[in-house]
Amino acid sequence: MDVFDGGSNQRPKMNWNGKYKWIGYVVLAVIVLVIAGLFAMQIMTDYYWMDSLNFSSVFTKILTSKVLLGVAGFILFAICTFITLFWIRRSYVKHFDSNQLPPILKRRKIMTAIMLGIAAIIGLFGSSIIQGVGWEQALKFFNRASFDKTDPYFGLDISFFVYVLPVLNLIVSVLLGLSIFFLLVEIGAYSVFQMYQKSRSAQLHLGTTLAIIGVLLAGYHFLQPYGTLTTNMVSLFQESVVHGLSYTDEAVNIPKAYILAAVALLMTIWMIVKLVRGNIRTMLTPIAVYIVLIIVGQGVSVAVQNFAVSPNEFSVEKPYLQDNLDYTRAAYDLDDMDIEQHPGNDSLDADMVERNQDTIDNVRMNDVRPLLDVYNQVQTFRTYYEFNDVDVDRYQVDGEYEQVFLGARELDTSSLPDQAKTWVNQNLRYTHGYGLAMSHVNEVTDQGQPEYMVKDLPPEGDLDVEKPQIYFGEQDYPNVITNSDVDEFDYPAGDKNESNRYQADKGIQLTGFKRLLYALDEGSFRMLVTDQLNDDSQLLATRNIKDRVNRIAPFFDYDDDPYLVVRDDGSLVWMLDAYLSADNYPYSEAFQGEQNYIRNSVKVTVDAYSGDVNFYASNPDDPLMQTFKNIFPDLITEDVPDDIKAHFRYPTDLFKIQSTMYGTYHMSNLEVFYNREDTWQTPTERYFDEDVEMEPYYMTMKLPDHDEEEFIQMMPYTPKNRQNMISWIGVRNDGENYGEKFVYEFPKQRNIYGPQQIENRINQDSEISQELNLWSQGGSDVIRGNLLAIPIEDTIIYVEPIYIESNNETSLPEVKRVVVAYEDEIVMKSDFDTALDTMVDKVSDGGGKKDESDGDEDQADESDQSSDEPIKKAQEKLENFSELFNTYQKELSNGNWEKAAKTMNELEDLMDELDISKTDVPADMPEDVPEDVPDTDESQPSDQGKKSPDNSEGKD
């Protein structure tokens, strides 16, 4: 009886008609050809695209590494699979009689073909794993650059942890996973009729696999000590206060890893000896010992952490905390921070303003979000144009160093009318956006709109734009064809449209085979058969700039905020920041996932017209950048044009990471650092109509002890869970000083108002709140702009623009007021200059405060008495204003429209007396009072002099 077929030795024979056999072969051949064709087409289209941009060497290097690793993975997985299946079949053939085996197992050729097929499938799976996961790590491993810095425990160069250790871990992990997979297959195969007890071949097979697993486990444990320098985990259940090597790691985990590695090797030797002697049962003894040791080791780690470390953690971990502090600073480029003391004096006066006039002239009076709405309504002109973003930069304009806003006028073909969305229009005619808008950061018109420096179509203004066409940008552009027989739309000019011809050569020439290839790739039969293409026609593919650079160099991470630059020759380029990060920098705390090292060592430019891409080294000394330069020698250049370097901006995303890490790692006293006693955090501000975390912002200012204004990025700090400002961090952007970071610390003995405290005081100012509430009641939205903390010499002022926007969809946000806050004073005026002058006058006159340095108390008293009268008059007017406003609300709620309108006229007259122009009342204030006006107390003015909990701290 055949044990595998239920006792029946008779099997039905299937007769295959030979004349139909060829159909199966044809179908199989077609499937193989289709798969191979699609794969080849993808490779060719990518190569031609990369070659058109002169980056074919990058493509071939990546492809070659993937192929080599893929072949290695295929061979490894396929050979191991075939050996495993071959050994299993041989064990079956030896153990069972011929009549007990299924007929197919006895047919050697068929079984060999089946085993080869299974091995090939597993090999393809392994190939995809190895080349997909390991190609970048392999290239870094073979081309690594030294960090010229060693770890304090093993004395190894940092490059070992960043480049070598990940590759070793990958190799061990892949082989160990593969071995465990085969062990499970063998256990399943040899469980039939308990072959593992009766078959010598099966026992040898299982023992060999277990021995290989044992050796790999020994290798895994041997690498574990190096991993202790890159994590804060001391057991499966516990974390250490130290990122990197800790006391428990050195005392327990490292010795434990070496012991387990030795046990794994001894376990392997034991199992081989027992296999030779035929004592199968005792083979399990070392496995049980090994498992027990792992459990005991974890228990010892937990016990040491709980009973030896935790009761006296600081003194025990103190040496390791210092390494954690030093190496984290190095990983985030914070170890050369320039730290200065800022007195935070109340020294503002007219002379100081005059000395820092360039700083004053570059204070931002606009914010990006409302400004983007204005650009899109005023400077688009057609529905198919759109400003995707507005960015901040600086330019030399008529010899003056000036900070500006600018945005690109891009094309959005999805906004074309439905009848215009033809293949010709979307692929041949509407190919590019046009020009840009640029405005002063510090100037607005009388209507509160931006004061433009470059505007309209074609662009005209303070800068010459020679190539305004934007073929490449931030929009999700479709691929287009240029230089066809169809004229490209350039820009609207009155009743007609101007046309344009693409003059660059960075597209793909659609001639011969390439036309067929890209027609298939685009899935466009029209591209293949149309007679509107010629020998000069070019395909512009991947026109979104972030997709474009990521397609060329996918091994970099890119900033989410590209910005447009007008070069000296009048051309437009996009600037992108590329980040280089690593996972295994020793002793460093991670900022995201396992990433604990980051640099912005590469700047990328994309020509908005031609699409030409350049990678520039902004930090040539970075070991990661040097490693990539070794891998791709033709990718990155260190020769940066001056007009490109002049517009390098320190990226906001990186600055946020660094400022967050520095908020903890600025503490140099280890005990303070351990207790996190002096943690700094990002403050909050009132932006639009909600409290949000403050974002870093760019400023043009003159740093203390420096002679000229420069472009910096800055961020205030507040103590954790407090609102007073403790310091501010900045980074320089210009020339040779690019990337230099500094911190100005304020005195800790007295209160320096923080951003949220200023916001609270603005909310509680009775005059300001009444005026803002009046606008809100008049059918308009009040938008609070960014609050800017502006250091000037040894003092600091705050500036916040106030926008008014009507509730209808087509309204434009307008800067109607500017708030200036300084020390205990707050001023709101129609423009910044007036507000600043008023503030200077207030503080120069004493601002209601006594000058501590003036010993003549009689003069101070006389000054106070002389100012009583105007203060009383102003108070009376404010009280009258409040009464009228309450009357106005009451009449509205009672439906007395005529009395409400009369009261509104009285309010307007009183506003004139208070030096408030009638034009400041929203233009859309309804003449006819609406029928349903809710009676609300939210618009009631708050009590003057009321303080927030934050302000109650006062000054020490």
Automatic annotation (TrEMBL):
Residue ranges that the Swiss-Prot or TrEMBL entry lists as coiled coil: none
Record bears the keyword Transmembrane: yes
Signal peptide start-end: none
Principal localisation: membrane
Amino acid composition bias (Basic and acidic residues), ranges on this chain: 843-852, 944-956
Topology in the lipid bilayer: Multi-pass membrane protein
Organism: Lentibacillus kimchii
Keyword Transmembrane: yes
Protein name: UPF0182 protein ACFQU8_05945
Localisation: Cell membrane
Record-annotated membrane-spanning stretches: 22-43, 63-88, 109-130, 160-184, 204-223, 257-276, 288-308
Swiss-Prot/TrEMBL keywords: Cell membrane, Membrane, Transmembrane, Transmembrane helix
Domain of life: Bacteria
One Pfam family named in its UniProt record: UPF0182
Region ranges (Disordered): 843-871, 903-956
Similarity field: Belongs to the UPF0182 family.
Composition bias type Acidic residues, residue spans: 853-867, 925-940
PANTHER family in the cross-refs: UPF0182 PROTEIN SLL1060
InterPro entries per UniProt: UPF0182
